[in-house]
Amino acid sequence: xxxxxxxxxxxxxxxxxxxxxxxxxxxxxxxxxxxxxxxxxxxxxxxxxxxxxxxxxxxxxxxxxxxxxxxxxxxxxxxxxxxxxxxx
Length: 88
Known about the structure:
two-stranded antiparallel sheet, 88 residues, 4 strands, 20% strand, 1 helix, two-stranded antiparallel ribbon
């Protein structure tokens, strides 16, 4: 694991902002992807690295990933004769 940084969140207009250290290698105006996790943590990466990140995640899945399928996804019958959208 790399070096640890601490930062403070501050209000900026109607948003909140996070000032990140220059040592992280980000440039002014650079786009990043921010992903919140269920446990309250976040991951982020440079947008131009999204493809590489995705491929790295794909390669990290175990060989038995989804071995038993997706689980219970039964959606029941649909009326394909109607043009009206039906509620879920």
